[in-house]
Amino acid sequence: MRRPEEDESHSGITLYRAGDRFRTATGWLDSRHSFSAGSHYDPSNTHFGLLLLHNEDRVAPGTGYDEHPHRDTEILTWVLDGELEHRDTGSGRTARVRPGEVQRLGAGSGVRHSEHATPDDGVRFVQMWVVPDDPGGVPEYAVRDVSAGLDAGEQVVLASGLRRHAGLTVLPLRQRNAALTVVRLSAGSSTELSAARFAHVFTARGSAELEDAGVLDTGDAARIVDDGGGRQVTAGPDGTEILVWEMHGVLGD
Predict the structure, then answer these.
(1) How far apart are CA 54 and CA 75, in angstroms?
(2) Is residue 1 part of a domain?
(3) Any long-range contacts for 132-138 (C-beta under 8 Å, 24+ apart)?
């Protein structure tokens, strides 16, 4: 992976290309890491703002992550293709997450869970971790279907701890300085990013042009620092689907 100083930078924007991500490939998993993960370590690329992990995973049918623990982490999962089956031992809960649905696991003081593709089909998903405000707390789990808003071309807030989202129907996030948004745009359509101390823009499908930065193809990301807001994202000829983290803090604040 190229380090930030080796990438294109425009007015506080650093572009990270899909092919420059770390990759973990096994018999059942093909995972692309936006930050240091597993055996891949780059001291200059361990996190961004409050975002600790941003993986795009492809999992073979009937396989996946066997039971493992988490604590003190807010975990968001966005399924792109197939179905992801979640099981957690604390509650005995089983759930299947499909495209158009977002899953949140607030690990709190500790939880054990597993994640697998269904036996008939593989699954592709993006999993993202942010640090919570405080350690501990009761583990929390929820899934929300946002298909209607996506199909309407709206910016849909998936999960948030920001005060201005308190009245919206969103998944709660135990991080008061972060929010995750998704938008699906048809060819040539545009949307405007919110002002943020840190913004992470990931192109999950298609391509998009980010104002002052250029074109982001599938799997590309932009990291924006101290943005004043009003920056436009315009979908390419095949449309686009983008995930945006808006963050107003950084680790250690």
Answers:
(1) 10
(2) no
(3) 132/72, 132/73, 132/74, 132/106, 132/174, 132/175, 133/161, 133/174, 133/175, 133/176, 134/174, 135/71, 135/72, 135/109, 136/72, 136/108, 136/109, 137/106, 137/108, 137/109, 137/174, 138/108, 138/109
**Domain range holding 87?**
10-247
Please count the helices (runs of H) and the strands (runs of E) in the chain: 1, 21
Tokens of 144: 């929300």
Nearest alpha-carbon partner for 114 in 85, 80, 77, 73: 85
In a domain, 77, yes or no: yes
pLDDT for residue 229: 75
What mean pLDDT is predicted for residues 210-215?
94
Do residues 133 and 141 lie in contact, with contact meaning Cβ atoms separated by under 8 Å? Answer: no
Let me know: does 170 contact 157? Beta carbons within 8 Å: yes
Under a CB-based contact definition with an 8 Å cutoff, are residues 158 and 102 in contact?
A: yes
pTM score, two decimals? 0.93
Q: Flag whether 21 is in a domain.
A: yes
40 in a structural domain: yes
As for how many domains the chain has, the answer is 1
Label residue 89 by pLDDT band (50, 70, 90).
Answer: confident
Pairing of strands 232-247, 196-210: antiparallel
Task: Give the number of C-alpha atoms closer than 13 A to the C-alpha of residue 175, restricted to the C-beta side.
Answer: 32
- Residue 69, judged by CB atoms within 10 A of its CB (0-12, 13-18, 19+), counts as exposed
- Provide the CATH number for the domain around residue 65: 2.60.120.10
* C-alpha span between 223 and 110 (Å, rounded): 30
